[in-house]
Write the structure tokens for this entry.
Amino acid sequence: MISLYMAFLIGGAFCLIGQLIMDLTKPDVTPGHILVGYISVGAILSGLGLYEPLVKIGGAGASIPLSGFGHVLTQGTLKAVEEKGLLGAFSGGVEAAAAGITAAIVFGYLAAVIFNPKE
């Protein structure tokens, strides 16, 4: 049960930080900047070995947000480089994140087909 609370706290902290950055830097920092920033920070922290402990503590609260996507890309790239050499640097991240990317495309398509946008 504690892991559920930790996931909520860590995921909520990520959202809080992003919202504060957007509110305090209007109009200079857009949601797009926040999205790219979270992926980049997740990748950097993962490469330094600092993101995995956060995933162990927070579970889905750390692995589902965009920083978790950066973590998956980095870990996939590192693993593929060990196995395939330099070629793995180009393919490893996408291979590791393929299931998540596919799910986003499929569910986004289904939502677009089922629901009508408001004007």
In short: The mean pLDDT is 93. The two ends are 42 Å apart (CA to CA).
